[in-house]
What does this fold into?
Amino acid sequence: MEETRRRTLHGRRRGKKLRVGQQSLLDTLLPRLALALPAEPHKIDLAKLFGGRLPPDGVWLEIGFGAGEHLVWQAEQHPDVGLIGCEPYLNGVAKCLAHIERTGVGNVRLFTDDARLVMAALPDRSLGRAFVLFPDPWPKTRHHKRRFVQRDTLDRLADLMVPGAELRLATDDPSYLPWMIEHACTHPAFDWLAEGPADWRGRPADWPGTRYEKKKLAGTPTFLRLRRR
Ligand SMILES: C[S@@+](CC[C@H](N)C(=O)[O-])C[C@H]1O[C@@H](n2cnc3c(N)ncnc32)[C@H](O)[C@@H]1O
It folds into this structure.
């Protein structure tokens, strides 16, 4: 498992020193919400993860939630959905925990490592929605293989998502956009839900802005919605 993590994770784990309150959230709140991977070949028991029953409106996955503002917003809006957020950057996890504490949502579970480990351990056909919002762009050609959106991650998401489930992608990187279109929008398991430019230039109302998006680092954000066939 450790070997898998070394091969797949390309982000940083820590940034500046955590404040005392942030460290305290990591020490006390995180253990109550943390998703622990089962021993192989077992799959994650989603009813157990969400307190003994499957969330009535299904389970959603956010990959690379950053500071968690989108994840926690969705959890507040959809209390009968169980949300699993994956983020290896601990400073972001600490910020997300602060949002969880502030809002009091009880339907979020966190995995503080590479999302691909969770994707391997989730049961097939278990997700009603998945989000990959502003993944690290890796703009240099020799780094494209590090991009999260790849054929193999999309194949795995296709296995995990129920028919009709929505996959939401976003990027503001001018070279990641055509890559996403090439890999995701033409993937045989997904239909791209866009009829015209307004559909990818405008953020849907039930899609709050993320911290990264607000920084406007690279360019104009694009929002892609795809449906599992
Ligand atoms: C550019 S940031 C965007 C964060 C957030 N989605 C936003 O829009 O503010 C990309 C995030 O993806 C996380 N990340 C990178 N590789 C990941 C992986 N394999 N699994 C889970 N998260 C990952 C990084 O740690 C980083 O926080």
In short: The mean pLDDT is 93.
